[in-house]
Amino acid sequence: MLKTVVCVSGGGTNLQAILDALDNGSITNVKIEAVISNNAGAKALQRAESRGIPGILMTPKAYPDRESFNAAFTEEMCRLAPDLIVLAGFLVKIPEEMVCRFDGRIINIHPSLIPSFCGVGYYGLKVHEKALERGVKVTGATVHFVNEGMDEGPIIAQKAVAVEEDDTPESLQRRVMEQAEWVLLPQAINAIANGKIRVKDGKVRCVCRMEET
Ligand code: GRF
Q: Directed axis angle between helix 13-23 and helix 43-50, to 10°?
């Protein structure tokens, strides 16, 4: 069983997609050990609680500076000792020491086709606003391993989504979630849990195609 910790900040629809995939058997060999949120009001925490999964609040606001938060966050993660950390809409930058300790075991979902519309300042609705401003006809989502950079780690999987003429940032966000994020993230977790994807020398090694997982 892959001991997994999911980090969240908001609605937790990606967390829900993972829980649903566990229920219907499309993710196997995974146990969600805990859900960590930086936001006490995150609906994601309620979703965890309703499943009996421990919810942990870990917010920079509770610490005098970023350094002490980073140390406490890393310590908490070491205590949980997960095999896999899933960032599912988590808006806090992962401390470098945690990336080091869990190298190749942290994944993130980003709501664009990286390297477009990613990096510092590209989160939530802003990603979709920028995509519409630029007039792209196709966008999507990416699951990638996390390194010290912002949305820069090795790419595991991507799924394209068409932009429609009358899209608003909200309608595009919804379509990207439904058609890409909620599909891709559970698939990637299942593939990792079943030894089908790993990272080696900074490169993602897939031993099968994602669709077959
Ligand atoms: C998703 O679009 C995710 O890709 C982004 O933040 C959003 C979080 O949504 N990083 P939710 O909390 O999973 O509903």
A: 20
